[in-house]
Amino acid sequence: MNESKRRYTIKDIAEQSSVSLSTVSLVLNDNPRISQTTRARVLKTIERLGYQPNRMARALAWRHTRTLAILVPQLRHAFADVYFGEIVSGIYDRASGLGYKILLEVARNEFIDNKEYHQLYDQKFVDGMLFIGANSRHRFVSELTDGSRPFMLVNNYSKEFDLNYVVSNYRYGAWQAAQHLVRLGHKRIGFIGGGVGEIQTSQDILDAFKEAIEDSGIGPDPNLIVDGWLTEEGGMKAAEELLRRNPDVTAIFSLNDRMALGAIKKLNELGLRVPQDVAVVGFDDIPQASFAIPGLTTVHQPLYEIGKLACERMVELIHGKVSRVQEVMPIYLTVRESCGARLKDGVAAPTI
Amino acid sequence: MNESKRRYTIKDIAEQSSVSLSTVSLVLNDNPRISQTTRARVLKTIERLGYQPNRMARALAWRHTRTLAILVPQLRHAFADVYFGEIVSGIYDRASGLGYKILLEVARNEFIDNKEYHQLYDQKFVDGMLFIGANSRHRFVSELTDGSRPFMLVNNYSKEFDLNYVVSNYRYGAWQAAQHLVRLGHKRIGFIGGGVGEIQTSQDILDAFKEAIEDSGIGPDPNLIVDGWLTEEGGMKAAEELLRRNPDVTAIFSLNDRMALGAIKKLNELGLRVPQDVAVVGFDDIPQASFAIPGLTTVHQPLYEIGKLACERMVELIHGKVSRVQEVMPIYLTVRESCGARLKDGVAAPTI
DNA sequence: CTGAAAGCGCTTACAG
DNA sequence: CTGAAAGCGCTTACAG
Q1: Smaller CB count within 10 Å for chain A: N or C?
Q2: Distance (Å, rounded) from C-alpha A215 to C-alpha A351?
Q3: Which of the residues A1, A9, A12, A56 would you substitute to probe the B interface, choosing the one with the greatest number of B C-beta atoms within 10 Å?
Q4: Could you say which architecture CATH assigns to the domain B1-52?
Q5: Are the Cβ atoms of B96 and A108 closer than 8 angstroms?
Q6: Using only C-alpha atoms, what is the Rg of chain B?
């Protein structure tokens, strides 16, 4: 039951198999040079002793660790945010299949000031890093453009720096959602934003929203745009402010689901019905969106798949199979009840 | 901008500082034996070259990595579950403050079959492991009882095995919630469970629920107990089944918030008002609970704090400062609107 | 097909 | 107060 205190090393295996250290190492690495018979013999004693090669020693000799870092911005309880969680799950699952371990990192101030984004690579702790949720204040990413340290933005991109990324088609998604509201006859549509001007994809959503609105002949109105800080609390406050400034609003486009859920909560408190009095559409399609009351119409982002793809490409980057990855994933509107287009559950929404 | 390809090593620092390797290593480890002057000199060239010690080499020499693994069960997109996410955030934040890195692991079949729960330690990949969400099928934990490999159950415990854990007082929490419902006059109270018989804390909730009900003179009724698999979908199905079997139900106690939210959704679809027709209480107090409509009355678990404490104790375990940790955290009911005790927002609930 | 030796980049007794 | 040397546990040319 209780294994002996000292772990076995390659030396033990060599001795007990009557071969050299090199030979053991070579079979450990599936080198075809070793004959089947000695290979089998070595494998047997490895099995018998339950030997596990020390990964630190291998990493030191190999100069890589088969470990990837997932980096997220410093937010309150970042790992409890479903948006990040879905992507992390995708990355983890793919990494696991490819034999990679996942290390968690938060872009705290010290992380940036101490250049830990370099240290992680240089201390040979990770082979690559995936950044979810980067914003314009994370200027250090500019030091990761040259490709010497495999780095990627996940579901985000940069116009300023030439970085690797996998991102969904935010503009098209936002355009679809806005068009949907317009086609439903709404003319006074409020916009609850978050991260606009700081997060490229937030900017994209707002831009596409404006474009869709104006394409429909509805003039832009700065009064209809408020900030909700991407949180439920923020969404509540934003909805309140929006209604105060524009009592005639009949629809709200929220830049993410968390704010949309907050907005619905506030609308409810104000005695306004969703969607009869005010229609609401969100963005992301987090799992909670479908269990909200009413079910939230929102732009579905394939978060988990984005995570998987990003991880896969990252490993290709590490192995030098590709030198640049800049991929855009399709994205579509999921119609539920909060926009009023669907009257009965189970009935497909009219695309008009 | 672009650093030279080869990273500096301790040897470079030694040469450029005109000292030996040992000396550099000793200042790296803050050894007081080194004089202030040479120490300063070495530090200067470390600074100048931007030298970073290779962590793999240190780990090899030290025989530990200052890395902790967080283990979760194999669930669909486990890291997107807010329950886990809150705890992970707590562990991460504390680990970060203590200079530890966090590695993610899922208890997949291969993880168990290949004894990766041993490998992780024996390959010197992690110094300790924290398991969130263990259930009775994870029998491998029995091999982690002897303390040779620092291991801990987070917000869970075992009656069968003598393991380290930090857990909240589930029984008392459940008892409070059940009592609350009883005092509100409910006599036909449905119970939506999940993991009962597999997860010790789930069993505890059910036991405490039954106890509270029976203490109040209400006889037990197996018909009132259904399984909702701990998910929103499951909660919806469970609520439906519960109402079908017991049209006279006036309250529902859900073993977690996710199912409670699903139950409310289903009640809504069935045209039943919460709390007027059916009161609902949940368990966990995930962030979403307060933004649900109506706000969910639920037992607040200090998930983030539990994660922090578990991490802190784990590090003490690693350093041999403690040899056993079995701590229970207090827990209390948070009253919102879904139980009907609170009529207006902002008004404190009567404890009766 | 196999082995001896140098090397990966540190740490830590042991001398001095 | 500082240095030479052995060691942590592997891998990988280089010989043979």
Answers
A1: N
A2: 18
A3: A56
A4: Orthogonal Bundle (1.10)
A5: yes
A6: 26
